[in-house]
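Shall we go through a protein fold together, starting from nothing but its sequence? Label the sequence line and the structure token line clearly, so we can match residues to local backbone shapes. Would you write everything just below, so we can both look at the same thing?
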Amino acid sequence: MLASLVHPSKVVAALAATIVSAGCSEPVTAPAVLCPRIVHGQQSPSVVQLQPSQRAAIVAVYPDTREAICSGVIVAPGVALTAAHCAEAFMGTSISVGAWAEGQPAATVTKTMVHPRVDVAVLWFPAALGPPGVEPVALHEGTIDEGWLDHAVQLAGWGLSEHGEVGTLRFVAEPLVDFDADTFTVDGRGQTGACGGDSGGPALALDDRGRLRVVGLLDAGDPSCRALDVYTRTDPLASWWPFAWRSPISEQQQCSTLGPAGVCVRDGVVWCDGVGVRHDVCDPDRVCGLAEDAARFACIAPQDDTCRDDH
């Protein structure tokens, strides 16, 4: 059976935990974790594209004792975000952000601020001592609404896998199935999920202009590690962030990133017409897809989409 987990608002009492997961005949000793972990994840993202420099922005967060682990994301030079329950659990110790493996780059946190109400913490560290060549992943400037429902977001974290491993960055894509003023919920549908050590890890998605954004931070997970996980939304916190966070990327730079084919974003397509970025919302009977011999993604009839599994 899967490991017994503790609710994310509490610290695992033991400093070392024996993890037994599905498919493992022997228990694996691992650092204590804060619920929740990526179960049945992959080592590469599937619904967003990450450059190596952006991948480096998804960090492990842990005390100097290395007896526990959470996840986080660098969103500005020298600034990372994680879950408040992680930062509070590590108070009184020296906190590191970066790679988990011994000898790999990691910076020591110099200042911490916890949001007064939701499960978010800001960690400051010397940018020069963080992951080399890192490109911060910007925060979402838009709003999550009904148009996001049933569309996949990319989850990431350093927590335990189904094999009882800890300290390897993994990804999984899950549909966003519900949201409220502060959080949104994703559903692993009995197959995948976030669990121990992924607390504070980011949910990533493309915004309505096709830009990679941090849209949430892992707050709480289902005890099965294969069902509903709850993420704290980043968009309602726009007026609270205690650092400069808006992305300075110009339309010309974004067009260079998008490329000539454009990209599908939920119920539309984002592309460049040589002048600037364009966002077409597809009619209900159309989908964003790639027609045969087409030069870019567009709103087309579902049967004409060459990206469909039955083509």
